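Example record

The entry below shows one chain as it appears in the dataset: sequence first, then structure tokens.
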Amino acid sequence: MAENLKIGVIDIKNVQENSGFEKITKIVEGFAFDNNGSLTDVQAIPFIEAAENQVEPLIITPVVLNDAKPLMTIIAKHRDGSTTFFDLNLSELAQFLEKFELEGSYLELTTQSGVTIFTNKTDGNLILIKREINFSDKKWMLTGYIDLDNIQANTHRLNKMITIALIISAIGIILVSIIALNYAFKPLLRLQMVVSDLSHGSGDLTQRLEVKSQDEIGKISSSEGSPHKSASAKGCTQ
């Protein structure tokens, strides 16, 4: 955009306010202008020298920190001989990267010259993943960090939740099993009481066990009840 953006001196302020550039400076016929008007000779010297030494139609300067702001300048040399300096504040790029913040992961963006544009990295047990980003003739490095301690803590917390769930399930299964066993062994317990009474001579042979269960234990109890009936019948005939 900067290469194709041709602006006049009187348009600098309006373009600067609507284009998102931090500052626009234009060199025309050896004079320097910005959004506040013309620059003094002292202020204009570095811009004029840079414009005279520029050969390529477009160059991008390395990122520098100005009042803690990461700034990058795009210099466009136009066909009419004028030169425009577009200062771009990369803080908005940092704000964009902040949207990708996740617990236990961090990002860091640095320039080829080592200037940090953005970082939210903290100290800890970290592993890193690097990705090189080519920007014009510049190479930036985007590094992602993963906090292993955070992952371990989350894993431990998840394992604890799973363990608690398994314990609750086991308790439920045990309670259901106890109830089922009590129901299944109820006829057998009654039979045991009858046999015990008979062994002491106090049993009632005319009493028949009431068996509701149809499982093997219930069948055993039923079969044991049959001799009682037979014995009672024999006693009557005698």
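Notes for this example: Residues 215-238 have pLDDT under 50 and may be disordered. The chain has three domains: 9-89, 92-148, 150-237.
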